[in-house]
Amino acid sequence: MTPAPVIELRDATKSYPGGVHALRGVNLTVHQGELVAVVGPSGSGKSTMLHVMGTLDKPTTGTVRIAGYDVSQLSDSRLSALRARHIGFVFQHFHLAAGRDAVDNVADGLLYAGVSLRERRTRAREALAKVRLEHRYSHTPSELSGGEKQRVAIARALVGDPTLLLADEPTGALDTASGEIVMELLHELNASGTTICVITHDSEIAASLPRRVRFKDGEIVSDSRPIFPTEEAGS
Ligand SMILES: Nc1ncnc2c1ncn2[C@@H]1O[C@H](COP(=O)(O)OP(=O)(O)OP(=O)(O)O)[C@@H](O)[C@H]1O
Ligand SMILES: [Mg+2]
């Protein structure tokens, strides 16, 4: 049986006032269990697409289906619920709350999951153990290295057991060794069933991932594993 599509973008465009066309008609299907590298020059639309996939941003035209839901049909509260249940984010610069320890930063990943603070903290400790940070529970971001901060961010993203993990240059601010640990964690998560899209400027990392989607000027210009002929861009 073919795994279900987790992400379906159809003719997705994103324009900004002043004539910026960040996405110019993107078609992309990502199935459950995939691990996809998104590559392309600066300004080509990678982050824009990730935000659209993550329902942080709406496309100007076109459709976005996540886990089978057409996101344009959902109310704000249903959309927040979809995000809380299905999507985890990791960013280049971690986006952790200063002054809050690792456990509480991760527990915040469950804020909209409807569980008690006590339960959130218990699950946060488990998630931190998964990224091998059990010795850093009470450290605040300023007491963590860059690589450790990114592992806290990954723990926050995975604590809700998301269907889909979206990572925007998760190794971009890290040294090679820390970057490798982060990529190992993403591979482990993927092996346990999480679908992952990761934007990277690192050609070695991209080459090590099973599928590569390349952007240029707001369009997909190549896809190492297109699902439908219409997605075979770059002709
Ligand atoms: N809020 C915004 N308002 C106007 N233009 C925007 C906005 N966000 C992004 N853009 C423009 O959209 C285009 C695509 O930006 P995007 O951030 O998706 O690129 P990117 O591929 O992620 O680049 P990088 O590799 O530098 O992160 C760029 O030209 C950018 O200037
Ligand atoms: Mg970007």
UniProtKB/TrEMBL annotation:
Transmembrane segments: none annotated. Keywords: ATP-binding, Nucleotide-binding, Transport. SMART domains: AAA. GO terms for molecular function: ATP binding. InterPro entries: AAA+_ATPase, ABC_transporter-like_ATP-bd, ABC_transporter-like_CS, ABC_transpr_LolD-like, MacB-like_ATP-bd, P-loop_NTPase. It holds the Pfam family ABC_tran. It comes from the Bacteria. The keyword Manganese does not apply. CDD domains: ABC_MJ0796_LolCDE_FtsE. Residues 7-235 form the ABC transporter domain. Gene3D superfamilies: P-loop containing nucleotide triphosphate hydrolases. This is ABC transporter ATP-binding protein. It comes from Streptomyces albipurpureus.
